[in-house]
Write a structure and sequence with these properties.
The complex is a heterotrimer of chains A (170), B (729) and C (103).
Chain A lengths: L1 H22 L3 H21 L3 H25 L15 H21 L13 H10 L3 H22 L3 H7 L1
Helix pairs in contact in A: 1-2, 2-3
Chain B lengths: L1 H7 L3 H15 L5 H28 L8 E10 L2 E9 L1 H24 L11 H20 L3 H19 L15 H30 L11 H9 L11 H16 L8 H4 L5 H10 L1 H11 L1 H9 L5 H22 L4 H21 L3 H28 L17 H15 L6 H20 L4 H28 L6 H4 L6 H16 L16 H7 L9 H23 L10 H8 L3 H8 L4 H27 L1 H75 L4 H21 L1
Helix pairs in contact in B: 1-3, 2-3, 2-5, 3-4, 3-5, 4-5, 4-11, 4-16, 4-21, 5-6, 6-7, 7-9, 8-13, 9-12, 9-13, 9-14, 11-16, 12-15, 12-16, 14-15, 14-19, 15-16, 15-19, 16-17, 16-18, 16-21, 16-22, 17-19, 17-21, 18-19, 18-23, 19-23, 24-25, 26-27
Chain C lengths: L4 H21 L3 H26 L5 H31 L13
Helix pairs in contact in C: 1-2, 2-3
Classes of the chains: A mainly alpha (170), B mainly alpha (729), C mainly alpha (103).
Chain lengths: 170, 729, 103
């Protein structure tokens, strides 16, 4: 019974935070709600007995991505003000579409017959994970590292203030 | 030992030029010398390894029955695994003898042609060498491929390179708007060959659906599977064919595109807009050969149906298309004045020979001609390129002439190539290979009688042989004999050694390569070595003295006639082509004009396919905007608006009028009439205009917002709709 | 194991739908990016849940969740760099004003 209560509580917090992320008028508050949603999702991973993923979730999403987003919001501060409408003209249709999508997905989830198997999590999942990454999945692993490098270089190139830009700004 | 060593490193052959391509494109774009050294160096390595493999293959006994296959798993989809690897068999060895060597000659020649070390060096010189290295990668990859998937990938690499290279001088524009620019020519080559590629892909998919794999060993060289495939009926749209024939025909569609066979030949003449080394590369060593190579590759599919004596229309279709293309292109070649234009149509015609040979089952002869043709056609293209450079980019043969003394090396090598093309008896390679095709056709038609398609094939090919000799003599006479007919030809000079040396080397092969395939009946020369190597499982073509004498006679006759018409009394400046004059005299001027205009195929395709597509788009546009959808919307809006306006005015005017009528009945009644006219009628008219404008402003424009979010929303809704349909049904 | 698989899947579906709503309705480019992050997280919950309930012996699901993390990090870095570059050039992050597709 306890896991169910925990799951229900975590789900409510997560979903509530997620709704706040997409509806809050103040974009900075949205970002903080996003952090809350990430924490909730990390808890879900713990419930799923994947503690390593939960830790990575906290490190990468909260420690890096959310912070990056907050920084970006502060750098583009003009739009932080509350008076600006944050929804576009098609929001009502988007809401409708999202609701229908949720209905369809939920229906699929409940009508499908998932081949669930009972089984225990391996004793030392982190060691196994490391092994898998460097044997079976070594090629995707390397590609992912190249992707990260490319993203790193790319975002520097895109985000860098060009010399002539700053000169004309002066 | 050394044999195993070479065969084990076969996979390196396409890797060398690919690395050269990467390095040139990424790092050495600004260094011409380093770029061409890399390109040529990689090709030297490929050539050395390639010939190592070829001679190892020749030294391996029974290679035909036991091809060498080395494959590593590449990726898995579901239950089937695709491999990547190489395949060494006699056909591959024959192609590998030709491709890297001719490519190497062309690469060296390009150094001179693209103006290295002169003031006229091409601004994109380094990139050119990168592209041709990639092109060589595609062709070499295709030759060593172990399965149809990697073959198709290499095939498409070549398609891309042909686009890049034909359009290499993409800045070039002409004053004459009807003249096709390099940009358009590249696009045209790409699109037209794509039509063929679609069929190739369908064929490959069809084969995969039957076999569950694409490797040669499990499909084309698996006799049980072939028998099974031949006995399986094809899809209903193919009538009562066997699946093997249907697949072969679809794959042949790809070859029609790449090897420029009728009716997809139109891209090749325009491909001459590219630099001349590219023409040599595309039209001799690589791209067009790839099509013939492919048909030779799938020859087991055709052969099995013959072996089992099933109904097999595919070979008839292949033979007919090939033979028709051979004669059709040869006729057009006579009417061309562009020195490269003649060679372009000559290439189409010679490819027709090979295709026709495959269609009548002359597998060995087709391969033989493929190899010899690559050598002499590369030689001819490069010779014409040498003329073009020597005469300051003058390509019109009517403006040339008298280059024999000024460009002696080019002249003699061109003559060697031209004689090989015409099939000059005994001493040229073209004679032996072409003769084998004709002999095979003769043999088939002797078996089946004059009412059979081998007879038509033989007849068309024989006439084409005569025409080939004739236009070759015309080209040599117009270009090199007589007196210069223009300022450019007057000041011609011999080209640098980087260009003439490859010509001399290729000329040697153009003359002597035929001796490997001399029929065994000719005493004193041993057996037909080439046949034994390539196709010992197929019966050798019996020697026919009749055919040999006939084709010698035709070659000599054609050359002689050509010389008699064009060489004996050289043309002076501005003189009309004697053939045109003669044809005008016997009221065939229209035919000559048609020949000059390539039988108007470009115009026909423009009028049907291109204009047809545009028309269809117009009709759909009208359907949407003028005829059906919009008018319905407009009509509804108009009616609603009309009703509301009318009731509005009615309310305002009529009720008011009723109040006022007691006081000012006469005057108001008159005014009412005027106002009703003004407001209701005009209002209605204005309403129509407003609604139309409103629809445009509020309905049609907003849909095209340019905002990604709108498009995403539409995407979501469409996806939901599709899921809905899927769930309902 | 008292929580069935379906619950996790429905939670993920809800998160995904909320994310889609955010992507479609936000005027602010950074808001859109946050919506995308929610969608990616929903996918990750699915991956880990399927791993736990269908194939707990091998760690395929977790491995792919890690790859999704990587892609998300790369996407956010480039996305925010783009947002900042656009903000610098056009002084706005309102996507409706960035309708270059129409011009």
């Amino acid at each position: 019974m306890v896991p169910v209560i925990v799951f229900a509580a975590v789900s409510i917090v997560t979903l509530g935070a997620a709704v706040a992320v997409v509806t809050n008028k103040n974009i900075l508050h949205s970002a903080f709600y996003l952090v809350l949603a990430f924490v909730g999702i990390a808890s879900i991973y713990v419930l799923l007995e994947a503690p390593f993923i939960a830790v990575v979730q906290v490190l990468v999403y909260i420690g890096a991505i959310a912070i990056l987003i907050v920084f970006a919001i502060m750098l583009t501060r003009r739009i932080m003000s509350k008076d600006i409408e944050q929804r576009n003209a098609q929001w009502i249709w988007s809401a409708l579409g999202a609701l229908i999508l949720f209905g369809v997905l939920g229906w699929i989830v409940y009508s499908a017959n998932w081949p669930v198997v009972q089984g225990a999590v391996p004793d030392d999942p982190i060691a196994l994970l490391g092994q898998e990454l460097l044997t079976t999945y070594v090629v995707p692993f390397e590609i992912a590292s190249v992707l990260l490098l490319a993203a790193l270089v790319g975002s520097i190139v895109i985000g860098r203030e060009r010399e002539q830009d700053s000169r004309s700004a002066e | 030992m050394i044999q195993d060593f070479f065969i084990n490193i076969t996979w390196l052959i396409p890797v060398f030029p690919f690395l050269a391509f990467l390095i040139i494109i990424l790092f050495t774009q600004n260094n011409n010398k380093l770029s061409h050294s890399l390109s040529i160096g990689s090709m030297v390595l490929s050539w050395l390894v390639g010939w190592g493999v070829v001679f190892s293959a020749i030294g391996t006994p029974h290679l035909g029955e036991h091809p060498i296959q080395k494959v590593i798993p590449w990726f898995e989809t579901g239950t089937s695994t695709f491999g990547i690897g190489f395949w060494v068999d006699p056909l591959m060895a024959a192609a590998l003898f030709m491709v890297p060597f001719v490519c190497l000659m062309i690469f060296i020649y390009s150094v001179g042609y693209m103006g290295y070390g002169t003031d006229e060096v091409d601004p994109n010189y380094a990139r050119f060498f990168g592209y041709i290295a990639l092109f060589a990668t595609g062709m070499l990859g295709l030759v060593i491929s172990e399965n149809l998937l990697t073959l198709f990938m290499s095939w498409e690499i070549m398609g891309l390179c042909s686009y890049l290279l034909i359009g290499f001088w993409f800045q070039k524009n002409y004053d004459d708007p009807d003249k096709i620019t390099p940009r358009q020519a590249g696009l045209k080559a790409f699109l037209v060959t794509k039509v063929g590629d679609l069929f190739l892909m369908l064929g490959i998919i069809y084969l995969y659906s039957q076999a569950g794999t694409l490797s040669y060993a499990d499909t084309l060289f698996n006799h049980e599977f072939l028998v099974h495939l031949a006995e399986t009926p094809a899809l209903p749209i193919f009538g009562g064919w066997s699946a093997a024939s249907a697949i072969a025909l679809l794959i042949f569609g790809g070859a029609v595109g790449k090897s420029a066979q009728f009716p997809l030949h139109i891209w090749l003449p325009d491909a001459m807009e590219g630099p001349t080394p590219v023409s040599a590369l595309i039209h001799a060593a690589t791209m067009v050969s790839a099509g013939v190579f492919l048909v030779a590759r799938i020859f087991p599919l055709l052969n099995i149906v013959v072996e089992l004596e099933l109904h097999n229309p595919t070979m008839g279709i292949i033979a007919f298309i090939g033979a028709f293309t051979a004669i059709f292109a040869a006729i057009i070649a006579i009417g061309q004045n562009d020195i490269k234009g003649v060679l372009a149509f000559s290439t189409i015609s010679q490819l027709g020979y090979m295709i026709a040979a495959l269609g009548i089952g002359a597998y060995v002869a087709a391969t033989f001609h493929l190899i010899t043709h690559a050598f002499f056609k590369a030689l001819l293209f490069m010779g014409s390129g040498s003329v073009i450079i020597g005469c300051h980019h003058e390509q019109d043969m009517m403006e040339l002439g008298g280059l024999r003394k000024k460009m002696p090396k080019t002249f003699w090598t061109f003559v060697a190539g031209g004689f090989a093309l015409s099939g000059f008896p005994i001493i040229t390679a073209g004679f032996w290979s072409k003769d084998e095709i004709l002999a095979h056709a003769w043999h088939e038609f002797m078996l089946e009688g004059t009412a059979s398609w081998p007879f038509f094939v033989w007849l068309l090919l024989t006439i084409a042989a005569f025409l080939t000799a004739f236009y070759t003599a015309r080209q040599i006479s117009l270009t090199f004999l007589g007196k210069p007919r223009s300022h450019h030809a007057e000041h011609a000079h011999e080209t640098p050694a980087t260009m003439t040396t490859p010509l001399i080397i290729l000329a040697f092969f153009a003359l002597t390569l035929g001796f490997v395939g001399i029929p065994e009946e000719i005493v004193g020369l041993g057996n037909n070595w080439f046949h034994n190597f390539i196709g010992h499982e197929y019966a050798a073509t019996p020697l026919s003295v009749t055919v040999m004498l006939l084709s010698s006679g035709l070659a000599l006759g054609g050359l002689g006639l050509g010389w008699w018409v064009y060489g004996r009394k050289p043309l002076v400046q501005g003189q009309m082509d004697p053939v045109e004059k003669g044809m005008n005299k016997i009221r065939l001027g229209w035919l000559y004009k048609a020949m000059q205009n390539r039988f108007y195929f470009d115009e026909i395709y423009r009028a049907t396919f291109i204009d047809g597509s545009v028309k269809l788009a117009d009709i759909l546009y009208d359907f949407d905007y003028h005829w059906v959808i919009d008018p319905i919307v407009n009509l509804v809006a108009r009616i609603v608006r009309g009703i509301s306006e009318f009731s509005n005015k009615f309310d305002e005017k009529v009720v008011d009028a009723l109040v006022n009528i007691t006081g000012l009945s006469g005057v108001k009644l008159a005014e009412l009439g005027g106002i009703t006219d003004l407001k209701v009628v005009d209002g209605f008219v204005n309403g129509v205009a407003d609604v139309t404008g409103w629809i445009g402003e509020k309905v049609l424009r907003p849909i095209q917002t340019g905002k990604a979010q709108n498009y995403l929303l539409i995407l979501l809704i469409s996806m939901l709709a599709i899921i809905g349909i899927y769930l309902v049904y | 194991m008292s929580i069935p698989l379906n619950w996790y899947l429905v939670l993920a579906a809800a998160l995904f739908s909320i994310g889609i709503y955010g992507v479609l309705s936000r005027r602010n480019a950074i808001g859109i990016l946050m919506g995308i992050e929610l969608m990616l997280n929903a996918v990750n919950i699915n991956l880990v849940a399927f791993w736990r309930f269908m194939d707990p012996g091998r760690l395929t699901g977790q491995v792919f969740a890690l790859f999704v993390f990587t892609v998300a990090a790369a996407e956010v870095a480039v996305g925010l760099a783009l947002v900042i570059a656009i903000y610098r050039n056009r002084d706005t992050v309102v996507v409706e004003e960035i309708d270059l597709l129409k011009e």
